[in-house]
Amino acid sequence: MKKLRRSARLVDMTQYLLAHPHTLIPLTLFSEEYGSAKSSISEDLSIIKEAFESQGVGVLKTVAGAAGGVKYIPQVNQEHSKSFMATLIEQLAKPERVLPGGYLYMSDILGHPTTLAQIGKLFASAFADQDVEVVMTVETKGIPLAYATAAYLNVPVVIVRRDNKVTEGSVVSINYVSGSSKRIQTMSLARRALPEQSRVLIVDDFMKAGGTVRGMIDLLQEFRATVVGCGVMVETADVSERLVDEYISLAKLNEVDIKEKHIQIELGSYFQ
Amino acid sequence: MKKLRRSARLVDMTQYLLAHPHTLIPLTLFSEEYGSAKSSISEDLSIIKEAFESQGVGVLKTVAGAAGGVKYIPQVNQEHSKSFMATLIEQLAKPERVLPGGYLYMSDILGHPTTLAQIGKLFASAFADQDVEVVMTVETKGIPLAYATAAYLNVPVVIVRRDNKVTEGSVVSINYVSGSSKRIQTMSLARRALPEQSRVLIVDDFMKAGGTVRGMIDLLQEFRATVVGCGVMVETADVSERLVDEYISLAKLNEVDIKEKHIQIELGSYFQ
């Protein structure tokens, strides 16, 4: 046991809390670690709480009682998120992003850790009260986004594969119809990858008609899971029949003029 | 401008530094943000530095002069890493992980954000001095690992695809021979995904003969990139001819007895 001064304790507790979001930490853990009275630890926590809230880092929830402690819940404020998304939308609207089929090139954005962390924190904030147990996505481009979200929720990621060549023991496969291309495709998940009756948040980078997300929802029924939410980064507006009802999007792609290379994109449903 | 007390500054600077690894932050940024003298900021930083070092969070490097500032370099100490890996190896050695072909089921481990963060920090520590500009991996299972590493290095991730159906504009594809199965396979990367002459760190979850990593190295030549390092989580020992010379592994799989479901695994080359 080492005896630490308040200043050193504050630094250390801050980094510990940030590294353990959505985790109930008993005050005794800190008081034993630092050889400090619980009352001092409580004072430290109220300093951290105030700083986190004023900087938009998140909230500290205190749970009283013998089984109590403190929990860091990552939260972004709506204003910060809007200005972040406005910048992102500006980037997304660049003409060189137009891809065949009306898709957008987004791999650079989906590869950038600071951007991903912000989007992940946004999704984690939006679904903070849903008791998410697992974040699910389908390979490939949604994976970094799912991981970023899961890091802030402190839950595991499960990745659905787009083939059935998965060599991971017993596998559940379903066929689904890609809503936009109308082709029949397969997605698979190893039986052991997801405990039955999990509470699952679906995350993906792009949604047109929603066939892929619909496929994931159907696949989840095989695992008797509950879909507690669905977050997509970009949705397209020109969809005659959406295959998914409940989801949030961060951006909405209204029009892609492939010939003129003009992109019309705005804030998504999360901000309405 | 808000005037903050030392205690609040410490919390805020700690979270800011943790969110911006490998980034030179001018002291003026903090002194202006908090309305504090540079001398006070310097004192704050020495408190944070000491706490980070004693807790194994990382080091703070101070760069003097007009263009100077402070930089947080994530670092794990060898002892912590060894005990973390020892626990991981225990998990990996469980008989139910044996898969056909002598592979191991690792998706649960590769889906867990705390575990991934620790492995990512380990790789980021190992290659901290290599001026890494991009982390590269090939889909699918290595992606979370690459992202975790990139987050600590604060550089983008580039994902090589296993097919050539990539609709991302001009694409570079190569054929490579999977070292263990001897099958010819294809991997592709969009031309615009990687600037020429980048310094690239390759990260993957599993290496047998090294055909996949060799393929990535060959692909990188097309981009005139420099491979500054290669980190794999698990390598297998029973390889007659390794196709890659320089790499670090965190664990070495010596033997998988498929019939008896016995796994013999130990610390990898990084710890030798």
Structure report:
The structure is a homodimer. With about 270 residues, chain A is α/β, with parallel strands linked by helices. Chain A has two domains: about 5-75, Arc Repressor Mutant, subunit A; about 80-270, Rossmann fold. In chain A, about 35% of the residues lie in helices and about 30% in strands. Chain A has seven helices and twelve strands. The first copy, chain A, has helices spanning about 5-20, 25-35, 40-55, 80-90, 115-125, 145-155, 210-220; strands at about 60-65, 70-75, 100, 105, 135-140, 155-160, 170-175, 185-190, 200-205, 225-235, 250-255, 260-265. In chain A, β5, α6 (about 145-155) and β6 form a beta-alpha-beta unit. In chain A, α1 (about 5-20) packs across α3. In chain A, about 45% of the residues are buried. The mean pLDDT of chain A is about 95. At the A-B interface, α1, α3, α5, α6 and β6 of A face α1, α3, α5, α6 and β6 of B.
What is the strand tally of chain A? 12
Task: Give the helix proportion of chain A (percent range).
Answer: 25-40%
Regarding CATH, which class of the largest domain in chain A? Alpha Beta
Number of helical stretches of at least 4 residues of chain A: 7
- For the record, the count of structural domains of chain A works out to 2
Rg of chain A (C-alpha, Å): 21 Å
* Separation, N- and C-terminal Cα atoms of chain A: 51 Å
Task: Spell out the helices and strands of chain A N to C.
Answer: HHHEEHEEHEHEEEEHEEE
Order of neighbouring strands in the sheet with most strands of chain A: 6-5-9-10-11-12
What overall form of chain A do the CA principal axes indicate? globular
Structural class of chain A: alpha/beta
Multimeric status of the protein: homodimer
Keywords (chains A, B): DNA-binding, Transcription, Transcription regulation
GO molecular function (chains A, B): DNA binding
Family (chains A, B): Belongs to the purine/pyrimidine phosphoribosyltransferase family. PurR subfamily.
Protein name (chains A, B): Pur operon repressor
